[in-house]
Amino acid sequence: MDIHINSAHWHLLLNHFPIILSFIGTLFLILSMLFKKQHLIYSSLWLIILAAGFTIPAYNTGEPAEGVVEEISGVTREAIHEHEDMAYKARIVILITGGLALISMLLHHQKKKTAKIAIIITLLGSIASAAIMGYTGYLGGEIRHSEIRGDFGNSKSEEP
């Protein structure tokens, strides 16, 4: 069995991590603030930092993946470029949020009074990151998944 992994495979493998980690990190951060669980604050901040870190290889494999799929029937340059433009914006938002999470973690560890404010700002960034990452993933899915675009044929007959 000959297994060849091309750049589209790598992009599809990597792009799920920043999306999922940003959603889980945001959820954990909300729960840690609601229930005042210190260990959960650190865990959520680490998840947000990891989400930002995984964004770099996910973004960097996007352009080579485009070269693999752009000539496939049903794939439009418009869908690719809409995803690409949103990915650029999402990368900036999540990298800033990852930086905020790192600062929040350091302030929290040093027991600084500004830590709570930094964590709240990080939470706002994390909510924005999760939203924009989710939307970017949705746009990426539209590139090849007709079931997301809604332009697939209905094989079942409609009943009156």
- Oligomeric state of shown chains: single chain
The biggest sheet, with number of strands, parallel, antiparallel or mixed sense and barrel status, is: none
Uncertain regions spanning at least 5 consecutive residues: 155-160
Q: Quick check: average pLDDT?
A: 92
Q: Helix-strand pattern, N to C?
A: HHHHHHH
The residue fraction in helices comes out at over 70%
Estimate the strand proportion.
Answer: under 5%
Structural class: mainly alpha
Word description of this protein:
With 160 residues, this protein is mostly helical. It contains seven helices and no strands. It has helices at 7-14, 16-35, 38-60, 62-69, 77-109, 115-144, 146-149. Helix 1 crosses helix 4 (62-69) and helix 2 packs antiparallel against helix 6 (115-144). The longest helix is centred in the middle third of the chain and has 33 residues, at 77-109. It is elongated. The termini are far apart. The relative contact order is 0.15. The model is unreliable at 155-160 (pLDDT under 50).
